Amino acid sequence: MESYQITGWCRHFMEEQVKPGDICIDATAGNGNDTLTLCRLAGEKGKVYAFDIQKAALEKTGRRLEAEGLRAELILDGHEHMEKYVKEKGEVSCIVFNFGYLPGGSHSLATRADTSIRAVEAGLSLLKKGGLMSLCIYSGGDSGFEEKEALLAWLKHLDGRRYLVIKSEYYNRPNHPPVPVLVIRV
Prior knowledge:
alpha/beta; 7-stranded mixed β-sheet; 6 helices; 7 strands
């Protein structure tokens, strides 16, 4: 694995999961990095949905995709509403979340525990058997700990017969490193 950043760690599992023709969701499009990766992996026959509540984030994502000759359905809405847009219930191969705020954006505009939990719940209903959900959970001084604690507590009680939840951590890193979590529908 080439990157020790949380995004690189999670991308490793995305690359293992997504095959050409797959349906994928970037639940937090942000700067478009994960949307771009999912589009490359799913290929021309695949479909990628990308959500963000910030128009500027979707515009940046759209420009990045256009420069690469790729496409995704860019949706200006909260990720907790993904079921309204994604009709392929039980067919989604991979869903990616990066919780916190947009890198380089306003720290006052960040994901929140209540909508994030609703979004993860909505995403689980869309995942196919063997589907993967990747969660990068950031916390700390400017984003707080409430969302992280609420998400982890909620995930801990998912039905173990239906989902495998793998929580990892950067054990020897200071300053509240992000928490990578993988959820696999079994």
